[in-house]
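Example complex used in Figure S2.
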Amino acid sequence: MHIVVCMKQVPRDNSVKINADLSINADGIEQIMNLFDEYAVEEALQWNEKLGGKVTVLSIGPEDWKEQIRRALAMGATDSLLLSDPAFTNLDTLGAARVAAAAIKKLGDVDLVLGGRNSTDDETGAFAPALARLLGWTQLTYVGKIVSLESGKIVAERHLEEVVETVEASLPAVVTVVKGINEPRYPSLLRIRKVAKVEIPTWSAADLGLSAADLTPALKLVNRVPPPPRPKGEIIEGKDAAEKVKKLVDKLIEAQVI
Amino acid sequence: MNFDLSPEHQRIRAEVRRFAEQEIAPRARHVDETGEFPAETFRKMAELGLMGLPFPEEYGGAGADSISTAIAIEEIARACGSTALTYAAHLGLGCAPIAMFGTEEQKRRFLRPAAEGRFLGAFALTEPHAGSDAGATRTTARLENGEWVINGSKMWITNASIAGYLIVTAVTDPGERHSISSIIVPAGTPGMSFGKPEAKMGLRGSITNAVTFENVRVPEENLLGRRGRGLQQFLAVLDGGRIGIGAMAIGLAQAAFEIASAYARERTAFGKLIGAFESVSNMIADMAVGLEAARLLVYQAAWLKDQGRQYSREAAIAKLYASEVGEKICRDAIQVLGGYGYSSEYPLERIYRDQRLLTIGEGTSEILRVVIGRQILGEFVGR
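Predicted assembly (641 residues):
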């Protein structure tokens, strides 16, 4: 079984600044593997340990994204692929999905694509569905458990807000996973040392046969501002607990919360 | 000249920090309050490959260099002093002597499982009457029908009752001056008994015991290195251990520094942030200076060790400076936080208590000054 994990590198926290040209300034902020993608890597590794085959970690980004690819290799991924080209700098979600789809088609023998439910920076959650559509494969989103995986077939639980759905689909497929599907392992320090010098294959737009038109964003960023600060809280005064509770309930009714 | 850590060092720091923040720091208070050995933490540390970090892969290690090891100890200490001391003693005192002087068979039998994290190692040197003056060792080992018969007692032995083996220093040729040898005693050997864990000021989750040997018998081949070379061996072992204690001092001081600087940025008094008062910002600045200097000294000693060069003096300097400046940093951090620094509700007082050992263990500040003084002035110093 050949599993591809789509992995994104993201800033560790949300205290990024916004540059004058509206791009994100994450200087001085540690870059990490997108939290949800880490679960996807772990899930791929666990199935790979059972079924054999290979796990390719795929990422779209500049050269320094190799750092998180190496981390995934140190966790146990067998193969890696960086899709990197100056033309990829301003991709929107659909453009990124086109790039990944071209690479997955070029790899040829992929049975399953795993990814996180969304990235913690852009948070569109649309990359994997777009990828599935472009590949013409089935998509299974919000997967909290892969019940079985065998050649040609996957059974998985979709963990939705109110219900858990068990779904069956034929492979190849694109699956996005939610937090809690597993407990991601820490990469071993020995493997960190061993993968330090591994050559990470890099494909450009030309390698993927992509034209400028394929990469033109459909979405234009018009403005980007930080969210307004949270309004101040209110402390309810009163002579005793009973009076405070009554005032609180009155306020909640007034605000139509209850 | 190059002061940059390599990408490998940076990756090891990032990974150990992440692990320490998620798995070790949340338990630090509990470990201090209860004195419980955090066994589950060590099981996870073994999975990460920490327990044999500096030892060769063929003996279960990760083959990392001394700088990486110092960084790992530093990051663990930043999260929990007790865990860091247990770890540093395991690597530097329990495992290192076997890696340095052991036979192939001893490495296979003791180093490999210890490096894989299946058990901890311990080094039993100090005695009730022989601390800094380790040459005054009274524990004896006599050879009888192919077995060492060990008698005596040891004090303040880190990890003793929870270790898979103890390396015990003992007089093997009475009458000859400094005729001390090191002998490996596996856990559970009849005649070896442990006092209950010592109640201590700090590092309470690190297990420290007295050990008594009554006709403890181990095979002759458990002799570590050459007979009568124990004194030279443990001086070499302690050189490495001092890098570890220096690294631990930096980690604890780093934690204290971070708490104090964060507090100085958010606490207000007299209508402004307390960090705006020079008396506070000066303390923060001095902490940063001490921390940077200590870190450079510790990494320099580790670097020299990795180059295969002499590092005894530099390790003594690094340990002496880092432990003393670390104590000052913790003291000042408490001062910045005032009552909150002194309260057990917050971690600073624990860090301060943990830091206190470091000017004592693996060479007191006083002995280290003798070591450094002798290197500069000559052997007559301290005689």
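Chain A has a mean pLDDT of 91. The helical segments of chain A are 35-51, 66-75, 93-107, 127-135, 189-194, 212-215, 241-254.
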